[in-house]
Amino acid sequence: MDGIATENTNAGYTGNGYTNSNNVQGSAIEWAVNAPNSSRYTLTFRFANGGTANRNGSLLINGGSNGNYTMQLPATGGWTTWQTTSIEIDLVQGNNLLKLSSLTTDGLANIDSLKIEGAQTKAGICSGIASSSASSIKSSSSSSNSSASNTGTLLTLDGNPAASWLNKSKNKWGTDKADTVLSYQQTNGGWPKNLDYNSVGAGSGGSESGTIDNGATITEMVYLAEIYKNGKNTKYRDAVRKAANFLVSSQYSTGALPQFYPLKGGYADHATFNDNGMAYALTVLDFAANNRAPFDTDVFSDTDRNKFKTAVTKGTAYILKAQWKQNGRLTVWCAQHGATDYLPKKARAYELESLSGSESVGILAFLMTQPQTAEIEQAIRAGVAWFNSPNTYLDGYTYDSAQATTNPIVKKSGSKMWYRFYDLNTNRGFFSDRDGSKFYDITQMSEERRTGYSWGGAYGNSIIPFAQKVGYL
């Protein structure tokens, strides 16, 4: 390290002492950590900062190839006043080098210890770099059936359905609608759904629950970020920040995102993949976390982006754990899953527990925006195989809603049709009515539901060509 590796002047430290880095910008401390597997870990630094200003540091994992974070090390009120700060990072299996470098001319805060929580770790090899012996490394275990690591190749976003949706959302409304859109934002940062923005709202927007249903909130967030990027009016920047905080605040500890927040009860409290809500919300947060347009401005701080990265990682882990196994084989997802038990759930009476031919497209598209780890690749390959299976689609048919009064499933040479709902165990496409009854022949259900809902479509055609493009088929 750059400075005193083991100092014991100021009381309150643990172990043999604490590190005291040189008071210059760039002074650094390095640790080596041996991880049993590639996974997400929580680092907790115990530190003291007796100065009057923050002594923040840049934390590089393996030279930045596995993460570049900003550690906030604020003033603690005295050099004998110790506090802790935590951050979630990704470590690769085997040896990892962690380097904390001062971002200020005052140097770093005094570091007493570094605690690592996740799979059991041990000291690694610093390869000749002088590491801190005073700043002790502690580790503890936590169990998880699936985790998402950020180590893996990135696929192109060109043609990805989730990225394409986001790019279209930048110009969802004309620039003259910006203030109207802003006028409907709730005090919690979210928006209501199904607004046409033809008239100005009430101002602060009220305190009702915001929603991600039908693209609400996330579309407005992308649109206003583009408005801010082109005009730099801070009222739009602030609205985008509020929207991002709304999304992060709404997330369950499991990583699930509900349909409404604050929670309203009922099926809306489940993890909401319906209408691509959760998948596209995570896509937006991922673009923000990685400084991609339209968030490639000062709209977010490094602290914000780190927070978004954590939210995306948690959401990805939830998705991987919720993927349904049919006869022991991974398939796709339901339109909504339990936020804590990960199981498929029903929504409205005619939206039964099922595999979704529609919503699973958006989930796969989101997963394809992430580093392609072994877990993510396995999930994508299984989902794409499900869509591409003759046991899933109807070959030579299309869904024509104009003929719903009789039978919207009609023959069409060269076409493929996927059902909206599939039986969880048999993979058979089905339909359901307002009383919850289940049909395998669409002509047997009520005309009201047959004409009032979309029961099929060319869903797979939205993901299969992109899967082929990036090598999944």
TrEMBL record:
PROSITE patterns recorded: CBM6
The keyword Lyase belongs to this UniProt entry's keyword annotation: yes
Keyword field: Lyase
Keyword Lyase part of the UniProt annotation: yes
Domain CBM6: start-end pairs: 1-117
GO molecular function: carbohydrate binding; lyase activity
UniProt-listed Pfam families: CBM_6 (PF03422), Pec_lyase (PF09492)
SUPFAM superfamilies: Family 10 polysaccharide lyase (SSF81853), Galactose-binding domain-like (SSF49785)
InterPro entries: CBM6, Galactose-bd-like_sf, Pectate_lyase
Entry protein name: Pel10A pectate lyase
Classification of source organism: unclassified sequences, environmental samples
